[in-house]
């Protein structure tokens, strides 16, 4: 990941976002997603999603034991927004999370990956506006939640 290839600035998708400062080739590791490594129980205790007005999006699940909380000691990767037709994808290797270019990215383009939050059937999922997507993609599914099974079947057929 030589040299910083993106900068953080105001985003039309949500709050702040990461924007390419130069061309980024498909397959390039853009940045490692960093922050405090905590357990799922610690994350649940720290961020009560059911009570808050918004879903906390600085958490990244690494595996069944570990979550990265980028709000504590995290880097600029935490500002890369969600999109339903993303130009990046997360890759987990050896317990570390990297954001990788899923296709060639042009200078000035906003970096985004599909958050695809797991649907666990909790009461907060009844209020999908908490997970509203504002990516503006032609095939936006309207939510940062993972596609429902029927939606996945349609998009993969």
Question: Could you provide a short overview of the structure?
Answer:
The protein is mainly beta and 157 residues long.
Task: Give the topology.
Elements: E1 6-10, E2 16-20, E3 29-33, E4 36-38, H1 40-46, E5 59-61, E6 67-69, E7 81-82, E8 88-93, E9 96-101, E10 112-113, H2 149-155
Parallel strand pairs: 7-10
Antiparallel strand pairs: 1-2, 3-9, 4-6, 5-6, 8-9
What does this structure look like?
The protein has a single domain, classed as SET domain (Beta-clip-like, Beta Complex). It contains 2 helices and 10 strands, in the order ββββαββββββα. The protein has a 3-stranded antiparallel beta sheet with strand order 3-9-8, with no helix packed on it. A 3-stranded antiparallel beta sheet has the order 4-6-5. The longest helix has 7 residues. It is globular. The protein starts with 5 loop residues before the first strand and ends with a helix.
Salient structural properties:
mainly beta; Beta-clip-like; three-stranded antiparallel β-sheet; 10 strands; disordered C terminus
């Amino acid at each position: 990941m030589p040299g910083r290839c993106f900068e953080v600035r105001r985003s039309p998708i949500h709050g702040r976002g990461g924007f390419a400062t130069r061309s980024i080739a498909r397959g390039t590791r853009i940045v490692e997603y960093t922050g405090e490594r905590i357990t799922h129980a610690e994350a649940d205790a720290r961020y009560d999603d059911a009570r808050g007005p918004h879903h906390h999006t600085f958490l990244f699940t690494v595996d069944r034991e570990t979550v990265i909380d980028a709000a504590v000691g995290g880097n600029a990767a935490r500002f890369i927004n969600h999109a339903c037709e993303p130009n990046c994808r997360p890759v987990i290797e050896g317990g570390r999370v990297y954001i990788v270019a899923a296709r060639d990215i042009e200078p000035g383009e906003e970096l985004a990956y599909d958050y695809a939050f797991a649907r666990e059937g909790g009461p907060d999922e009844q209020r999908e506006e908490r997970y509203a997507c504002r990516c503006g993609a032609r095939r936006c599914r309207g939510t940062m939640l993972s596609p429902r099974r029927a939606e996945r079947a349609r998009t993969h057929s």
